[in-house]
Amino acid sequence: MTATDDARTCIIFDFETTGLSPAQGDRSIEIGAVRIEGGVPVARFQSLMDPGVPVSPFIEEYTGISNAMLDEAEPCEVVMERFALFAGEANLVAHNASFDRRFLEAEYARIDRQPGGSLACSLLAARRLCPTAPNHRLGTLVEHLDLPSDGTFHRALADAEMTSALWLRLLDLLAERGPRDVTFSDMVRLCQTNKADLNKLVDQLCHA
DNA sequence: TGCCAGGCCCTCTTTAGGGCCTT
Questions:
Q1: What are A65-93's pLDDT values in tens digits?
Q2: Within 13 Å of residue A109, how many CA atoms lie on the same side as its CB?
Q3: Integer distance in angstroms from CA A148 to C1' B19?
Q4: How many Å apart are CA A120 and CA A182, to the nearest integer?
Q5: Which residues touch strand B (CB under 7 A)?
Q6: Which residues pair with A17 in a beta bridge?
Q7: Ordered structural domains, chain A, with CATH
Q8: Which H or E element spans position A79?
Q9: Which of A53, A81, A123, A207 holds its CA 20 to 30 A away from the CA of A185?
């Protein structure tokens, strides 16, 4: 998939991991992703991956991914090569992207790859565009915005599916405020804009 | 043994502290 600046054409992805920090030795155990083109889901990617170390009882309980399941999975390096082919140079979206970015870069570094496209964060965008939500956890936003969900949480593809629905809803909320669709670059810029400048930016994005 | 991240964002701020998010 090649890069485009259409905000509705990108790859929304999510990692499940052994913990919070690859710098502390944590590894990925599952990746899920949804490719959308023009706002329509056209392809999906999901794979468990064997990190080579046992996961804690907490993570088994939190994700439902057991050590027995991971024993039968392909190594991280093999799965990440397949994901890299799936993602290509596409722009990427994740919920709390600073977290997924660290794991993506760490796993890619092990196979001498780097992310191809830009990365936007649905959590930062939602904080700006849904300020009245009770909080900005993915599950809360799904409920608050009445987004589709099969009730599965903390599995990579299910979370990526919900994040893709959230991303498209955020773009719709912006579209309601102006005559033009925003670009992916606009959304990256929005994520970097503070509260004081937000209304001015949204006005610029929607009416430029 | 004990502890463990990091970026964003608000405020009783900026010479800082703490909650929110992700697993």
A1: 999 999 999 999 999 999 999 999 999 99
A2: 10
A3: 29
A4: 13
A5: A 14-17, 19-21, 23-24, 59, 62-63, 95-96, 98-99, 102, 123-124, 127-128, 135-139, 154, 159, 191, 194-195
A6: A28
A7: 10-206 (3.30.420.10)
A8: helix A76-87
A9: A81
d(CA A157, CA A41) in angstroms, rounded, equals 13
pLDDT band at A197 (very low <50, low <70, confident <90, very high): confident
Structure tokens at A194: 């503070």
Longest dimension (CA), chain A: 54
**What are the tokens at A31?**
């990746």
pLDDT over threshold 90, residue A196? no
pLDDT band at A142 (very low <50, low <70, confident <90, very high): very high
pTM given for the model: 0.94
